[in-house]
């Protein structure tokens, strides 16, 4: 009964909810969400720096997530590169001193907190030419004013960044009196114009006072209450924000530390000073505020302006706009023609006459329609990951965010099963399902940030290796059995693999190697093709007549293995080959091909294993050593059980080894040798964000609903792109050789144009 109810329910849902209606629903959702985010930006402002300085929350215990944007964790080299020839000054009390130490430790982790705490503390890195000073001014008074006033003089070198703040000493010394608060207001009023003047040439931040944990305060600090701190903060905000009459103040309020302190002040040792992890977070926020606009890190979207459109992006926008306009004109003309052919009434008989004209859909219409849809989809890609319209968040890994979805889809998969007519090893239905499961796991792996957990990382590397194994197995089997080395087959495979990536490279202004998996699969396909197509061409039909040809093919495979080993252990030779123009344009990332060498080397043997397995399996099958009749097992029960035992033991051994690895470098070194025992591109920009470094936020404040909605739109877009690619493949890659050669000439001219435009863009950037 349960099964019957399930089938009836499934049939009912399919009747009312088709793929077409799902895509329309996704389109409506995108338009509504875009309108809501646009209205929110207009109302709340579009400055992500303000969000970084004023709002956010903790993901877990120590990972700070600013509102609507991503924060980059700066390394030593990055910090020095950003702050070269810069002078940063911290002015204030012991809390500002703590912030100073945490900031300096980003540049030099060995810097020690020592010496007299109630005096100025200098720091200088002469190699990087970075200077950071702490100036001891625990009260907002004449002493602090004089220090700031000196910098306003034209003849004095001004710090590039000034971080100031003080209040707790005034509360403590004056026993929390109201007179002290009044004097604080007077003093900060006299300092405000000086800070405003400095803010025209330097970045000036006023740090609001963090709350205290009153239960831990010593007796001589009991007068420092959160009520008093709030009063001093209100005074500072009110005065500094009103220091300019007709415009917004240039002095930025560093209020985010208050939010950080509210979550962590309980961990304080004395109730007044924040724990080290909180100070490090505040210092990293300061680094992001200043450096993101300079270095433009991919996973640091806070304080980054929208990147300017490149020449190729502008040309792509014009092309897609013309395609949309052309399709609309074509559609209107076609619709008017269709109306003329509607049934008309015969005046004599009163009966309807039907002018039945079955007009076939022209290739031009399919082409315009495909580019029209693709243009709208690319606009969504751009909005998600370049236009700063939607929000972005950093990834944060927990075991539950990865394993619970995995368990859920496994349980759900039990209820969705179908019988297959195929019984052969690695048949199409089996490999498609295998790829589907792997894709689901990899998607969850990426969005949950599970790459930080080494055992999961290593098991996902096995899934990538398994996909490449299928590449070797599938393409070898096709060429071996069919013997079809024609250009049509090669062009079809290359077009299907690379069409979306080439479009994304243009629209998203990314190098081809950024989408590393497609170049990897493309290169391995060409390796398989060249290995089998070169003289002597050995296929199954030829080898059946003479066993000598089997030996010849094994020699070919052995030579391929030798080439793989040579390139894997000769980085210089590999880089020389792929640094040649125009290959360098395809495989360079950040000015070199190291990333490509690293990616290729990770799974260098697995495609060869797939080819070898296919050869042995098909050879044994042809000699009837293996029989695969319907319902017949491939092996006897004893052999099957033995192989199952070996598989389970191998998998457990691999899992134990992956869990015992100390770091990724050690695991990656051994992975190519052991991996044989064991919807990708769209996710880069419309499911993940910041070029896979973060998570796209369509619905803020509700992570679960956000994942559901963004996943639904992502799946619909991926399905539509798949259909567009199939339609365009039929038009752009015709079976007729003469037509195909003409199209290939056009494609070659197109890529020559891309290379020229790319060179122009590179020169303009430099």
Write the layout of secondary structure elements.
Elements: H1 2-16, H2 19-44, H3 48-54, E1 56-59, E2 63-66, H4 76-82, E3 86-92, H5 94-107, E4 121-125, E5 130-136, H6 142-152, E6 161-165, H7 168-173, H8 178-198, E7 203-207, H9 226-241, E8 252-254, H10 256-264, H11 276-295, H12 311-340, E9 344-345, E10 352-353, H13 363-385, E11 391-394, H14 399-414, H15 428-447, H16 454-482, H17 487-507, H18 517-533, H19 540-545, H20 548-568, H21 571-578, H22 583-587, H23 594-602, H24 606-622, H25 637-660, H26 664-674, H27 683-686, E12 688-689, E13 694-697, H28 703-732, H29 737-765
Helix pairs in contact: 2-28, 4-11, 5-11, 6-8, 8-9, 10-11, 12-13, 13-28, 14-15, 15-16, 16-18, 16-24, 16-25, 16-26, 17-18, 17-28
Membrane topology: Multi-pass membrane protein
Subcellular location: Golgi apparatus membrane
Enzyme class: transferase
How would you sum up this structure in a few lines?
With 766 residues, the chain is of the alpha/beta class.
Which descriptors would you attach to this protein?
about 775 residues, alpha/beta, six-stranded mixed beta sheet, 13 strands, elongated, transferase, NXPE4_C, golgi apparatus, N-acetylneuraminate 9-O-acetyltransferase activity
């Amino acid at each position: 009964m349960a099964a019957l109810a399930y089938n009836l329910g499934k049939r009912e849902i399919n009747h009312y909810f088709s793929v077409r209606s799902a895509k329309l629903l996704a389109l409506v959702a995108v338009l509504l969400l875009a309108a809501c985010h646009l209205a929110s930006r207009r109302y709340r402002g579009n400055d992500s720096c303000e969000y970084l300085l004023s709002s956010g929350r903790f993901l877990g215990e120590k990972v700070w997530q600013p509102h609507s944007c991503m924060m980059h964790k700066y390394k030593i080299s990055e910090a020095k590169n950003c702050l070269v020839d810069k002078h940063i000054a911290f002015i204030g009390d012991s809390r500002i001193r703590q912030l100073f130490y945490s900031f300096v430790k980003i540049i030099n982790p060995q810097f020690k907190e020592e010496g007299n705490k109630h005096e100025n503390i200098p720091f200088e890195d002469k190699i990087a030419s970075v200077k950071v000073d702490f100036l001891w001014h625990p009260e907002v008074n004449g002493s602090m004013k004089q220090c700031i006033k000196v910098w306003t003089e034209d003849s004095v070198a001004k710090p590039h960044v000034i971080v100031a703040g003080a209040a707790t000493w005034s509360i403590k010394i004056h026993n929390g009196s109201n007179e002290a608060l009044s004097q604080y207001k007077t003093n900060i009023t006299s300092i405000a114009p000086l800070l405003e003047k400095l803010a025209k040439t330097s970045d000036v931040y006023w740090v609001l006072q963090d709350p205290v944990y009153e239960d831990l305060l010593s007796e001589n600090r009991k007068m420092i209450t959160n009520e008093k701190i709030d009063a001093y903060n209100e005074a500072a905000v009110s005065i500094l924000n009103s220091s300019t009459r007709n415009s917004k103040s240039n002095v930025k309020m560093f209020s985010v530390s208050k939010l950080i302190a509210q979550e962590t002040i309980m961990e304080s040792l004395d109730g007044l000073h924040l724990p080290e992890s909180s100070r490090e977070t505040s210092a990293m926020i300061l680094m992001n505020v200043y450096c993101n606009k300079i270095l433009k890190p991919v996973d640091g979207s806070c304080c980054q302006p929208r990147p300017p459109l490149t020449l190729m992006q502008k040309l792509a926008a014009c092309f897609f706009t013309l395609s949309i306009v052309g399709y609309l004109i074509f559609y209107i003309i076609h619709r008017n023609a269709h109306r003329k052919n509607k049934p008309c009434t015969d005046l004599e008989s009163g009966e309807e006459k039907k002018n039945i004209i079955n007009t076939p859909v022209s290739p031009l219409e399919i082409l315009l329609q495909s580019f029209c849809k693709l243009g709208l989809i690319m606009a969504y890609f751009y909005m998600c990951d370049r236009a700063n319209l939607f929000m972005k968040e950093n990834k944060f890994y927990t075991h539950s965010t990865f394993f619970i979805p995995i368990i859920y889809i496994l349980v759900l998969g039990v209820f969705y099963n179908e019988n297959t007519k195929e019984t052969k090893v690695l048949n199409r239905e089996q490999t498609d399902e295998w790829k589907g499961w792997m894709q689901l796991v990899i998607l969850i792996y990426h969005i949950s940030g599970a790459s930080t957990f080494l055992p999961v990382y290593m098991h996902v590397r096995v899934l990538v290796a398994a996909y490449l194994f299928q590449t070797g197995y599938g393409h070898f089997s096709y060429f071996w059995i069919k013997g079809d080395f024609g250009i049509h087959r090669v062009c079809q495979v290359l077009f299907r693999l690379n069409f979306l990536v080439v479009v994304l490279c243009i629209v998203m202004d990314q190098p081809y190697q950024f989408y590393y998996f497609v170049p990897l699969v493309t290169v391995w396909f060409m390796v398989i093709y060249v290995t089998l197509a070169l003289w002597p061409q050995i296929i199954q039909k030829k080898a059946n007549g003479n066993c000598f040809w089997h030996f010849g093919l094994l020699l070919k495979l052995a030579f391929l293995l030798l080439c793989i080993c040579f390139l894997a252990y000769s980085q210089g030779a590999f880089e020389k080959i792929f640094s040649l123009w125009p290959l360098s344009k395809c495989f360079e990332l950040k000015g070199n091909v190291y990333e490509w060498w690293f990616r290729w080397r990770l799974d260098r043997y697995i495609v060869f294993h797939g080819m070898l397995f296919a050869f042995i399996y098909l050879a044994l099958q042809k000699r009837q050593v293996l029989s695969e009749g319907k319902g017949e097992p491939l092996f006897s029960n004893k052999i099957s059980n033995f192989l199952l035992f070996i598989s389970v033991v191998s998998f457990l051994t691999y899992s134990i080894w992956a869990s015992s690895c100390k770091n990724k470098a050690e695991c990656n070194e051994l992975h190519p040798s052991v991996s044989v025992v064991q919807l990708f591109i769209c996710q880069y920009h419309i499911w993940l964000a910041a070029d896979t470094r973060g998570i796209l936020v369509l619905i803020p404040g509700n992570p679960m609903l956000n994942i559901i909605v963004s996943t639904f739109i992502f799946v619909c877009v991926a399905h539509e792109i798949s259909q567009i690619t199939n339609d365009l493949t039929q038009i752009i890659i015709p079976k007729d050789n003469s037509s195909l050669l003409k199209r290939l000439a056009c494609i070659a001219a197109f890529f020559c144009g891309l290379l020229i435009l790319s060179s122009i863009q590179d020169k303009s950037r430099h």
